[in-house]
Write a structure and sequence with these properties.
Elements: H1 3-24, H2 33-37, H3 44-75, H4 87-101, H5 109-135, H6 141-165, H7 168-179, H8 187-214, H9 218-223, H10 228-250, H11 256-267, H12 273-298, H13 302-321
Amino acid sequence: MEKNFKIICLFLITAILISVIINLNTGFLPLSLADFFGNTGSHAEIAGLRVNRVLVMLLAGISIPTSGFLLQEYFQNPLAGPSVLGITSVASLSVAFYIFFAQDWLLPDFLQNSFLSFSAIAGSLLLMLILIGFSHRFQDKSFLIIFGFLVSALAGAVISVLQVYAENQSLKNYVLWSFGANNQVSGSQMAVLALIVLAGLIFSFKSIRPLIGNSLGTAYAQSVGVNLTRLKFIIILASSLLSASVTAFLGPVLFIGIVVPHFCRLLYNPAKLWQQWILNMLLGIFIMEFFSIISELTRYPLNVITSLFGIPVILLMMLKKK
């Protein structure tokens, strides 16, 4: 491992620790150290919410950039992101169906939030199975992108139709979900999110070595024994699990999945994919913790902050690439 890479990692880890400490101390009420380690006290519940906020940002910072990194390396396109396969759009559609048609269900708030998240996961996993089922027919990688675009367009159209006929409260609930929220994830939901992210990371680990061969061209990859069909399945599984889990619990906050991999290539040799994967996770954690702090200070939704940051960067990338 080269010295420059170690220095970058050390710098990012230090930045993460500082941002975590600041995030834990950001809020309306000042908390002491005892509030975070004690189960009793007037501020213990608030401290628990802040710890959950920090942990969910950590998981999102790991999963979103990893999903974007895998897709960009597979498609060899720096503008590919976690939403390129249509996973995010189908998750949003599933949430829209749940919010608009389950408005009369009498459920406690914590069950409402859980069912909302699980509906997004169910819709995303269903599309993932459809993608895997059809992917063997798409020999050209570009067909997957076209398929994802068509799915996204169809999902957006159906959501628009649902919004036309939705009641005011249902429409408001959907808009609030689409803004993204980093402070509403409970401990049980955190466990589900962590398990899905872990499964996605396992598939990601299995894809890095084949991606190294794939980056040198299809002919070279086949000559060194890379199973391109299996690689395609693994990429779909990994990116779908990682992007679906975050979308389900935080809303569509996936812009950093495009931006972070680009920054990591500027920081270190883009040909070294193992190191790039590590940098994506570290930088992703720091950026998500930083965005969480900004969201708490300004009271702006998380999705708004990521979009305000991500869209100008993507435009600059497009202009640079002409």
